[in-house]
Write a structure and sequence with these properties.
The chain is of the alpha+beta class and 270 residues long. The chain has a single domain (37-262), classed as 3-Layer(aba) Sandwich (Glutaredoxin). Helices cover 43% and strands 10% of the residues. Strand 3, helix 4 and strand 4 form a beta-alpha-beta unit. Helix 5 (148-161) runs antiparallel to helix 6, helix 5 crosses helix 8 (200-207) and helix 5 packs across helix 9 (210-225).
């Protein structure tokens, strides 16, 4: 697997295949315990690992959506992977209708530059074009790969979500220049305040709670079990996309998934 040299064309932050920690100086090693999601899912999920590999290789061309155009057997994607959508109406880390015909699952890290680029440059357009019209639901999965501060930021996002301020925390954490300030304890408190989290004491308690750690671990192991090796990684109705691809790549995949879902789309689990 090629090293993450971060060329200009690269569209995702790479995790090392050996440890599961990102290839960043000082990042602690992390074991990659597979998420047991069933043999059928694991077979299809290898596609996401390959998509991650291609998106972060030195020869990557982010203007071409390799995953959507060559990986999935149909416009509907892999049913086994589509089944990972939770469609929980009470999920504070998701946006969009639970019964939307298309669900995009995003596995991301707050210390990932490419995740920030997607959050600032592409996601707002997707929300306006698809989420606001009821076509798309976006489900966030914490996938910290850059060590202790990534883990802390993920728990902070979860804690903000418990008070209905996940999207605001997400925006503050991904604002231009925010990553460079780090995600230490005082910084997370400042982000929570910026996000308008009403109860600072509860936020601090939730941040270090076993529930926060378990939630982050669940998302992280799901991503590793899918073979994801970079952030951001996405599943759109079971079709994998790796990296901060251009808007057109997401639009093509979402449009195809919506068409494949038809008028009966979005009747999955809620």
């Amino acid at each position: 697997m090629p090293k993450n040299t971060k060329p200009a064309a690269q569209s995702g932050a790479k995790a090392t295949a050996k440890s599961g920690a990102a290839a960043e100086p000082g990042a602690p090693a992390k074991s990659r315990k597979p998420f047991l999601i069933g043999a059928a899912v694991l077979v299809a999920a290898g596609v996401l690992g390959m998509a991650s590999y291609r998106a972060t290789s030195p020869d990557a061309k982010p203007t071409v959506n390799d995953a959507a155009s060559t990986s999935a057997p149909t416009a509907g994607g892999y049913p086994e992977l589509a089944g990972l959508a939770r469609r929980d109406a009470k999920d504070p880390l998701a946006q969009g209708r639970p019964d939307a015909p298309v669900v995009m699952i995003e596995y991301a890290d707050f210390k990932c530059s490419y995740c920030g680029k997607f959050a600032r440059d592409t996601e707002p357009a997707l929300v306006k074009k698809y989420v606001d019209k009821g076509t798309l639901r976006i489900e966030w999965r914490n996938f910290p790969i850059f060590g202790a501060e990534s883990e802390a930021a993920a728990r902070g996002a979860w804690a903000a979500g418990q008070q209905g301020r996940f999207r605001q925390f997400h925006a503050a954490a991904y604002a231009q220049g925010s990553k460079e300030k780090g995600f230490g304890g005082d910084r997370l408190k400042a982000l929570a305040e910026e996000a308008g989290v009403p109860d600072a004491s509860r936020f601090a308690a939730d941040l270090d709670s076993d529930a926060a750690k378990a939630a982050v671990k669940k998302d992280q192991e799901e991503a590793y079990g899918l073979g994801a090796t970079s952030t951001p990684s996405f599943l759109i109705n079971g079709t994998p996309i790796a990296g901060a691809q251009p808007m057109d790549a997401f639009a093509r995949t979402i449009d195809a998934a919506a068409a494949a879902a038809g008028p009966a789309g979005g009747t999955g689990k809620k």
